[in-house]
Structures are given as structure tokens and as C-alpha cells.
Amino acid sequence: MVGGENVTAQVPFVKTPKDIPREDWFAPGHRLCAGCGAAIAVKLIMKAIRGPTVVVNATGCVEVATTCYPYTSWKVPYVHVAFENSAAVASGISEAIKILNKKRGKKLHDVIVFAGDGGTFDIGLQALSGALERGHDMLYICYDNEAYMNTGIQRSGATPLGASTTTSPAGKVIPGKQQRKKDLIGIVAAHRVPYAATASIAYPVDLINKARKALEIPGPKVLHVLTPCVPGWRYPPSDTIKLARLAVETRYFPVYEVENGRVKINIKVSKPKPLEEFLKPQRRFAHLFKPENAHVLEALKKAVEENWERLVKLEESGVTI
Predict the structure, then answer these.
(1) Which residues on neighbouring strands pair with residue 115, listed in sequence order?
(2) Which residue segment(s) compose the domain that 126 sits in?
(3) How do strand 110-116 and strand 53-58 relate by DSSP bridges?
(4) Sheet holding 78-81: strands in order across?
(5) Within a domain: residue 6?
(6) What is the longest distance spanned by two Cα atoms in the chain?
(7) How far apart are CA 86 and CA 102, in angstroms?
(8) What is the rounded CA–CA span in Å between residue 67 and residue 85?
(9) CB count, 10 Å around CB of 155?
(10) Domain tally for the chain?
(11) Residues in contact with 102: Cβ distance below 8 Å, sequence separation at least 6, in sequence order
(12) What's the gap between Cα 74 and its chain centre?
């Protein structure tokens, strides 16, 4: 393959898991953990590509484990960049491709960014905001494992209230992280981008279709995908999809999209499961079930319900955000 020119158009949208293209543009053999949610997300999203594609990947778990020299898991042109500048680099590539395609009369290449929550919620937020404001044609994907997992499980802006990490350890002084998780899609939507959405690896059809839908829309788009992390969340590798599904079923991670400012909840959860069903299998939340930390658990539950109710009101009202 030269420059991704032999990438053939995939099925535009899928209706059932049986419709998912079998061809993989993200190859096996990488060094990501068994049960890694990020690996599953990338594998599924790469099935949504529609033609020649350039991937820009910020430093993080996905980068270090898929590009161990002299090997690579990427079957398309790939650029590794620093934590903080993936959106800026993708912006430059997108603009360069426009010029080259105009000169050569070739089909436009798509530009996809993969970055973790550390490289999106925190270190890379400035570059992302700039790219969104300038309106570059790119799809930015945040694989969110809710901490800086690659460098030792430090808390990030995506780490939820009460979670124990190496820099927000649960002990006698503090019961885990003391701050709520950032609202990434809310921040993105404030830039008036044409499309932003959340997705879960537990719902592959929804995830693939959102990635493909985003690619079909001109301008900057953002997907926020929850990707459970075995060592960071501290659970058995076989429970990755189970936890991803529970995150949705408990309303902890609502699956919705914001298209031209209007909110649409894609997976309705009218009768949510108790949040404890999502929290208990993860040892990062074990301390929340001690009597002295009951107030933190209640605060987390309140935050989850407040966020869900806010989204429902936005959807029902039709008000743009």
C-alpha cells in the first residue's frame, strides 16, 4: 500500500453486527492490554473509513503499544505527535491535503485523530479548541479511559468524582478525586461545530455509524468514546464490554449526539440500573462503599442524574447548545 490509496470504500452504515466490515485497517499483534477498551474502539472506528485516510495519534496508550519499532498496527498513513498538539498537526495535514488534492485532482483524504483523555481533556484542549474554532475538516476521537493510564494512572480532567488514582489516592486524607469530570462534549458544542457525539464500545453499531456519519459531514467533528482500562479501573480483562454497557445502563455515560447544536439521546435509559452495579466491579471505587465515604457515593450519584436530566431537557426542548 502506498499512501493509503488502496483503501476501498466500506459499507456506509451498518444495521446489525453482522453488517460490520470484516476487513481491518487496525491490525492485530499490538501490545495493548488484554481487554483494552481503547483497542476495541480503534478497531471498530477504523472499519468506518470511507477511503484514503491519514491517522494522527497523540502520545498515549494507543501510540506506544501500536508503533513499537520496527512494527506498526496501522494499515493507513500514520503520524505520531506529542500529547498537546494532535489537533494542531491534524489541522495542518487537513489544509495541506486540500491544496494537494486541488492541484492533483485527487479524491480528498480523510483525517482522523486518536487521542486519550489526558491528551484531550487537559494537555491537548487548547489545540483542539483552536482547530474547532478555525473549522478544519477532521474527525477528532477521544478514547476516554478516565486517567493518564500510559504514565501510571494519574488523575485527569476526565477522572470521575471519587475515583482513586496514583495522584488522587483514596485514604484517610481524601476519598479519591474531589472534582467532577469535565463535560467534553459541552465544551466542544460551545464551538458551534456541526457534529459531536458520545459512543460506547458496548454498542458497536452505534459507534461505527457515528464515526462514518461524522466523516460524511464537512468541518470539524468530535467523538468521545468511553474505553474501560483494565489496570487503571482494576477489573478482570473479561469484563470490559460488561462495564462499558453498565456505564450506559446506569446513565453514568449517556450516549447522545449534538448535531448543529441540537441534542439527541441515542440510547434511552428509562429504567436505569443502580450506579453501584457499574462501580462495584472496579477496585478504583472500592473505598466509596465504606461508611465514612457514603457522602462521596451520593454526590457521584447526584452528578450522574443531574447530567442525565439536563440532556433530557435539552432534547425535549429542542434548544440549541
Answers:
(1) 142
(2) 17-317
(3) parallel
(4) 78-81, 53-58, 110-116, 138-144, 220-226, 195-200, 256-259, 262-265
(5) no
(6) 67
(7) 24
(8) 18
(9) 23
(10) 1
(11) none
(12) 18
Residue 174, all three cell numbers: 481524601
CA dihedral 289, 292, 295, 298 (to 10 degrees): 10
Helices (H), the chain: 37-45, 61-66, 86-104, 125-134, 184-189, 204-216, 230-233, 240-249, 276-279, 294-317
Buried b (16+ CB within 10 A) or exposed e, 183-206: ebbebbbebebebbbbbbbbbbbb
CA distance linking residue 287 with residue 169, whole number of Å: 10
**CATH number of the domain that residue 306 is part of:** 3.40.50.970
pLDDT tens by residue, the chain, 321 residues: 334 444 444 556 888 888 888 889 999 999 999 999 999 999 999 999 998 999 999 999 999 999 999 999 999 999 999 999 999 999 999 999 999 888 888 777 899 999 999 999 999 999 999 999 999 999 999 999 999 999 999 999 999 999 999 999 999 999 999 999 999 999 999 999 999 999 999 999 999 999 999 999 999 999 999 999 999 999 999 999 999 999 999 999 999 999 999 999 999 999 999 999 999 999 999 999 999 999 999 999 999 999 999 999 999 999 898
- Is 266 in a helix, a strand, or coil? coil
Q: Which three cell numbers stand for residue 153?
A: 494512572
Instruction: Give yes or no for a contact between 224 and 142, defined as CB atoms under 8 angstroms apart.
Output: yes
> Of 47, 103, 113, 43, which is closest to residue 78 (Cα–Cα)?
113
Phi-psi domain of 287 (left: phi exceeds 0; alpha: psi -120 through 50; beta: other): alpha
Residue 12 placed within a domain = no
Residue 228 lies in a domain: yes
Instruction: Tell me, yes or no, whether 11 lies in a domain.
Output: no
Helix 37-45, helix 204-216: angle, nearest 10: 50
